[in-house]
Every structure is written in C-alpha cells, then in structure tokens.
Amino acid sequence: MKNSVCFLIASILLFSCSNKNQTYINPVWDSNAPDPTVIRSSDGNYYMYTTQGAAPDGTNCNIQVLKSKDLVNWTHLGDALPDKPVWASRTQNFWAPHVTEVDGRYYMYFSAEPDPEVKTGTDLGLCPAVATSDNPAGPFIEKGEPVISGNGFINIDPMLFKDPVSGTYYMYWGSGFEPLKVREMDESLMDFKKDSPTIELVKAFQHNYQFLVEGSWVIYHDGMYYLFYSGDNCCGEKAHYAVMVARSTSPVGPFEVLKNEKEGDSPILEYNDKWIAPGHNSIVEDGKGDLWIVYHAMDREKRKADNIDNRVVLIDKVTFADGWPVIGNGTPSESFMEAPSRK
Prior knowledge:
Blueprint: H1 2-19, E1 23-24, E2 37-40, E3 46-51, E4 63-68, E5 74-79, E6 94-102, E7 105-112, E8 127-133, E9 141-142, E10 159-162, E11 169-173, E12 181-184, E13 199-200, E14 214-221, E15 224-233, E16 240-248, E17 256-257, E18 275-285, E19 291-299, H2 300-306, E20 312-321, E21 324-326, E22 337-338
Antiparallel strand pairs: 1-22, 2-3, 3-4, 4-5, 6-7, 7-8, 8-9, 10-11, 11-12, 12-13, 14-15, 15-16, 16-17, 18-19, 19-20, 20-21
C-alpha cells in the first residue's frame, strides 16, 4: 500500500512538472558566439554555428558548433571546420556560417579571407565558400575553391534558401555598403547555376541602420517571403546594430522594406537599456511550429566594464501582425519568458 501511494504521488509530481510552462532568460549562451545560425536537424536536435571564437576550454575555433534539445540549454561541441580551406590556410577570418541539411547531408556556407598569394587584381576581400559533412557537428570539408570573390567585405554572409513553392535553391549574400544580393544555385548546391543572374535586393543608404546592410535570412510565411537583415555597425566603439525586414511575393523580389517616412527605416529589434547592438539573426521553428529569432547582442554594463565586444546569444519569439514579423516590444527580452516548445 505504501509503495502504491508513493508511486501515485511521484506520478502526480511528474505530470505537473511536465505540463508546467518552462521559462528562459537571455542570454541562452553567455560566451562570445557572433552571427549565430541555428538549424533543427533530422536527428531532432538543434545545432548552432557561429563565427570563430573559442570553446569553453579556451581552444580556438574556426567555426563554433553547439547542440541543444530545446534552444535554451546548449552544449559546445568544438570546431565544425577544424581544417581550413587550402586557399585560406594562413588567414583567420571565417565569418557567419549558415548550414542547411539536404537529404541527410549538411552544407555549410561561410565567408573566408584568402591567403595573400591567392588574392589577385581587385579580388582582395572575403569570399563565400561551401563545405559539406554527413554529420551536423562536422567536421565539414571545404570544396577547394571559393564560390565567388571580390573586394573588401562585399561578398559575405551567404545564406542558402530552398523556395518551398518551386523547390529552387538560392544563395543570398552581401553587402559591404552594396545591396544584398541573390542568385540561383545549381543542383550540386556548391556553385551558382550557370548563366543565372545576380539580382540586387535591399540597398544600403545613408540613414540610420541602413548605412550598411548584411546578414540575410529568408523565410516563407503565409504566401510571403520575408528577408531579415541587419545593419549598421555590429561592434566596436560605435556599435549601432539592429534587425530589419523586407517582404516580397517572390524569393528574388522586388522586396518592400518595412520603414516609415520619418525614420527612413524601421528596425524590428534594436537596443535597450541592457542589450546593445542586437542582430545577425537566424529564424528557427520550435516543436509546435512557433518561430524564434536567434541573434547576438552585447551586455551594455559588461561591455563597459570589460571594454570587450563579447557577443552572446539571445532568443525571442517571432509573431506576425498586419503582414509583418514582430519581436516582443522591439527589443531583446530582459526577464523570464515562456520557453520554446519541445513537442
């Protein structure tokens, strides 16, 4: 009888705990991890990939990779790209990875700075590259040459998107004070489709956050394509960064930018008293199909005390109103919030 009562009490407690709304508070990863891309793998786990940085043991990474079951609690797995590309073997600029799973294979798109002898003519800047792996944690192996080259940091932040309507794959990238761009990929997903045009999308202009635009991320929602992007300065003494959005009925535009006449642009996520320079986001679904934005930001007080651009990882829920995405009150959440669903 006693054992039966204990079992009943334990079952009630377990049921109550399992049905209680879980909460989280930002940051979900309190270590430097810029430009976070998060995907949900076919293995049921979430994987996060970020620009360079270091593992908790201090080991430097070319591309950090982390793993989570719930978008809140993360485990660092190490370096997703332990071997540098042969054409970028002596540099250390590996930026903004984006990973896509296709038929059980993982494709990583990132930007890298070529070695000095590889740079020719005006091709002196970072280049989008592709690496592949059969495991979401890596190691990823780069294909042996960049997808495209150019000057400065015009060709950065590549993002692969599969149009759910046509099945066509596109790569978005940019911009280094130039427009964000898009171009169709070939069947290998490792190069552009021959003779496909490069199409300019959102342009940079000299006003507020859009003086510089970068960090493209595209989703399809209720018949519309939404292009999230960030600007202006991600970091440094004049850090001034925010997330903006544009929409279109086509993955190649034209895109309508969310803005108002007075401000010139309308950020959907910008600084508050605690968090500065939020941006360079990815968008991912939780177990219920709700959308979450994953992005980096800097703690205002810690940055002031340490004088270090420590870009940690935050998440917030994305909803829609009047045909546009909305993120809370337009700034990073500071208190405990309802956590993503694991269903």
